[in-house]
Amino acid sequence: MKISTTELSNRISVYNIFSDGKSGMEEISMKDLYDSINIDTIDDDDIQDYGKLHLRDLKRLDYSINPSEDTAISVRKHVVIFSIDNTRAIITANRLVFIVPDGADSIIGEIGKDIDDWAELDSSFEYNAYERLLTATKYLDKNQLELLEKKSDDILKQIKRTNIMSVKTQDDIKNLKNEISSILKHFGHIVDVLNDVYEDDEKQAFMNLTLLKNNYILFKNVDDKPELHEGISNLIEVFLIDYNNYVSRAENLEIKIKGEEDLMMIKLDTVRNQLMIINTVISIIACTVGFSSYVASIFGMNLDNTKYLQPVPGVFNGVVISTMIFMPLVTIISVFCLTKLKYISGNIR
Predict the structure, then answer these.
(1) What SS3 state is found at 155?
(2) Cα 14 to Cα 90: distance, rounded to the nearest angstrom
């Protein structure tokens, strides 16, 4: 991958935390950052070579060049590259370099929290850096998941209050499902990366940067030295459990939304079925009324124009009563027959 001179001179904002407890913001070019990090590395061919840090590794962390970096925890010789969305950093044995994204006040606060206490902890500097970066990542993801859960509860309450979804509610559900799908994909990538590190003892061992820098002879054969990777393994396991829990919560959220959506569709189908039944009954009534109107049109309203029927006593009353009986009788018989034939449901409530 060829890197242009312009890209090398691009200045990026970084937040530095050093092993002596100092910290601060600075703007630095990728080339200068690369040179300053390589000062702390050791090039020894006797230990397993995970590869040196390259300029292209830094280019991948630059938001202006690569705004959507793939989730990864990459191990280089004496350097670990941490990249999960807006948590991008480079860790050495005595320095944490956090690449600052736009609007990163909250995450910088999380990463820099309690750094004065790091020196008092029994764990190494890089262990504290890994824990802080993963904690900051989890902090952002937890907030995003809780926001989705709140939005989901609000939408579900709207759905339960009505039998018909408005266009706005349908749009809200569609957007929410897209957001849940996106965060599930994000969580899945993080789980895959953490699993990759958790299942690779060699990678975990070479993440012990302080020990690697001070006593790299220990790393000539890491297979017989479980103590080199146990600490990192335990740390990764804790966050792996948390993220598996987040995946389960997001999946349950997706299931709840789909279940309520399916229930709403059943309600709509029921309403449509009831309307079809009512429409069928009204059509039958209209037909019977139309037939009765036909009878009235033949004989005339008072039967005055029919000389053969006029002398017969009670003809007018007979025709009126028979047509009044005919209309509901035909309607009832028609609905009964359609119900028996299962063309319509017998319950229209």
Answers:
(1) helix
(2) 10
The domain spans of the chain are 5-142+197-248, 269-340
Give the chain's length: 349
What is the reported pLDDT for 1?
47
DSSP-derived 3-state class of residue 336: helix
What is the tens place of the pLDDT at every residue in 307-341?
A: 555 566 666 677 777 777 877 787 788 777 777 76
Q: pLDDT tens, 244-291? A: 999 999 999 888 888 877 877 777 777 777 777 778 777 877 877 777
DSSP classification of residue 66 = -
- pLDDT greater at residue 50 or residue 284: 284
Exposed, middle or buried: residue 64 (CB in 10 Å: 0-12, 13-18, 19+)? exposed
- The answer to whether 281 touches 335, Cβ cutoff 8 Å, is yes
In the predicted model, is pLDDT for residue 100 greater than 80? Answer: yes
Helix (H) or strand (E) holding 129: helix 125-160
CA distance 91 to 83: 11
Among 89, 73, 64, 48, CA closest to 9 = 64
Q: Which fold has domain 5-142+197-248?
A: Lipocalin (2.40.128)
| 57-61 CB contacts, 8 Å cutoff, 24+ apart | 57/81, 58/30, 58/33, 58/34, 58/90, 59/1, 59/3, 59/7, 59/30, 61/88, 61/90, 61/99
Q: Give the E-state strand segments of the chain in sequence order.
A: 11-18, 23-29, 72-76, 79-84, 87-91, 95-99
Residue with tokens 């109107």: 293
